[in-house]
Amino acid sequence: MFKDIFSIFSEACKKNPKKIAIVYIGSEWTYSELLELVKRFSPSLSKIGVKKGERVLIYLPNSPQWIISWFSIAKLGSISVPISPIYTPSDIEYIAKDCMAETVICLDTNFRYIYQIMERTPIKRVIVTNIADMLPFWKRIIGILIDRIPRGRVAKERNIFWFKELLDDSKEEGIGESIDPKELVAIFYTGGTTGLPKGVPYCHAFIYEVAYWQRRLRRYIPEGEDIIVQGSPLFHSFGMAMGMSSIFFGDKMLLLPRVNLDALFAHIERYKAKSFFGVPALFKMILDHERIDFYDLSSLKYCCSGGDALPVETARRWKEKFHVPLYQGYGSTETGGISGVMMGEDPPEGSCGKVLPYQQIRFNEEGELLVSSENMPKYYWNKPEETKRCFIEIDGRIWYRTGDIVRIDKDGWVFFVDRTSDIIKHKGYRVSCSEIESVLQSHPAVLLACVVGISDKDVGEKIKAFVVLREDVKGVSAYDLIKWCKERLTYYKVPHIIEFRDMLPRSKVGKLLRKELRDWERKRLSNT
């Protein structure tokens, strides 16, 4: 039986009162302490005017304030809209208008961005916090004295509030309204790789379901005994699911406000972390880090990559280095997790697991994967045309068109092939961009690679690769990389053109933007 996520959180806190829930910059909070903070902050939100059903932007990095805000908003029956702390004023303005958000919780260093757009948006009130607000007084003082705590200017106005003051202002528990698990509790905005970001509405039941199955994958680590590194931002659906899979089940979460590899390694070593997850690029950065051998990471038992296709070479190197498999999961903001690998299983190389039990799948005539589950989102927020295109009804059931081509072998293992829009058609062959990228990124000199098709009247599309080399590399040419590909790919998949760049365009959540490179190529060709 599903419940609202505050009730689930509250039960976890009462079951594990003295266990450490979160660790942040060396400070720890038990489950009972975290619950008390939520019970104090939630009525303060109500006092300043936040109502049930209202959308609240959480414009914060990973921090205790994020967790407190998330559950306090849920307790009120309001709707969280987590957004990246690196969003610009134009990004925030678009999202605030799209979801009609009236409240924002943000860092003082980002306050100026909110302040300059308030008059153009529905935003009525702003709650401001400093990155170190929840740390002990002596830590904050030392941080200020050595100039390690960034601070921003904040206007003193009637509708501007300080997080810490609201937290200290209310001692009462506050009585929330009864909440149906099918009610909305969050809206996650997609990265916008194919246009403007789209809001994906989550209900309470869906968040718990996704988190539950993420926790089940770590089956050999007993509930309440896992120590998980929050390797992905909480504002992203993947990071949220992994974070909630820790909090809901009494585990310990290690929070870092931003990615710093040495700090990450130090946390794993000091706290003997057992689980770690992140995007493929993060695992490659770790493997390439020059000081990786200075740390003891042998406590890791379960490592999982998500958010993008994991290069086979990265998974292979990870297992050779740390003697622990690097599993690959697969999903999307619209569906949650689609497939995953149970701890202890031995998936075939390149597989992203088996379809999770709560999901149903089918394929359309083009071979595109369709996914459906009882509690998953059925529409995009305020986007009827996009909804009509991506959410379709078949036999009385709503299915999401993933835009992905996958294959499933006889044993049920799922293999991601490519996005339907990222298939290159060359001489009648269908060529996978991600397969070529994986081969290029397996070259020791390559840091990043992005492959696109460029129009050609003779062959349909030629294959072009944009490549970023590692900083310490010299003397590697396009000829060298094409030769590398010829040794590892069928002849018709070998890139025809390689262009070296210092960087590649990425979305706000770190995904490579093939669309921008395609558009750049089209403009270049039209001008020649």
Secondary structure layout plus pairing:
Elements: H1 5-15, E1 20-24, E2 27-30, H2 31-47, E3 55-59, H3 64-76, E4 79-82, H4 89-99, E5 103-107, H5 111-117, E6 125-129, H6 137-145, E7 160-162, H7 163-169, E8 184-189, E9 199-203, H8 204-217, E10 227-229, H9 237-247, E11 252-255, H10 261-271, E12 275-278, H11 280-288, E13 302-305, H12 312-322, E14 326-328, E15 330-332, E16 336-340, E17 354-355, E18 360-363, E19 368-372, H13 384-390, E20 391-394, E21 397-408, E22 414-419, E23 423-426, E24 429-432, H14 433-441, E25 446-456, E26 460-469, H15 478-486, E27 497-500, H16 514-526
Helix pairs in contact: 1-2, 1-3, 2-3, 2-7, 4-5, 8-9, 11-12
What is the general shape? globular
Q: For the CA atoms, what is the radius of gyration?
A: 23 Å
Structural class: alpha/beta
Oligomer: single chain
**Regarding CATH, which class of the domain at 30-205?**
Alpha Beta
How many helices does DSSP assign? 16
Largest sheet: 7 strands, mixed
Which whole number gives the mean pLDDT? 91
Q: Percent of residues in helical segments? A: 25-40%
What is the percentage of strand-forming residues? 25-35%
**Any low-confidence stretches, pLDDT <50, length ≥5?**
none
Number of strands: 27
Please tell me the CATH architecture of the domain at 30-205 by its name: 3-Layer(aba) Sandwich
- Span from first to last CA? 62 Å
